[in-house]
């Protein structure tokens, strides 16, 4: 078990990356290596729980509608340097308590769906489960960010069952369509090139691309509804 945590929780997320020179991280890890390892393992377990829940929902809805509403599921555990930067930016010191209490996105699960309606159906079904507690919901599909970003964000708390206790852990869940995910990925690569300031004209073009992608989603949604209605009529 220790080997699994070393390989996948520390090295795999950059916790012990050789290029990390942040003194606060080094000191923290030297003093708290075992508790940090355990905490990150708990977040890993929480991600696995959420991922499994969506896989089960996908299987059920596939049987019901004869199509898979989920294209892919991605998981991400925040690196220790990112955790430190976020805490310090918010005025908090680097402690285990602050990681758990002040950050909601240490563990992240991204669910990529085919259609916008799939997002809301999956989110509703997920939140109806009695061991999932919704902490925060942000709908950037109905209310896109200024840069054009669209996604449904859920901050949830779920239990993980250890050998001698039950522990509640927070996970950020993002639900997007394929086009939303494609746009977000490319927008990040374009906008955050090192040492380059994005001009307003480029930002405007990125927003236009996001709107075009959203319009395409709606057209595909209408086509799906038309085909489904036609199949039922026959």
How would you characterize the overall build of this protein?
This protein is an alpha+beta fold. It is 55% helix and 19% strand. It contains seven helices and five strands. A five-stranded mixed beta sheet has the order 1-2-5-4-3. Strand 4 and strand 5 form a beta hairpin. The chain is flat, with a radius of gyration of 20 Å. Residues 1-21 have low confidence and may be disordered.
Which percent range describes the beta-strand content? 15-25%
Cα distance spanning the termini: 55 Å
Low-pLDDT parts are: 1-21
Structural class: alpha+beta
Radius of gyration: 20 Å
Shape: flat
Q: Main sheet: which strands, in order across?
A: 1-2-5-4-3
How many helical stretches?
7
Task: Give the overall pLDDT as a whole number.
Answer: 86
The profile of the biggest β sheet is:
5 strands, mixed
Reading the helices and strands in chain order gives: HHEHHEHEEEHH
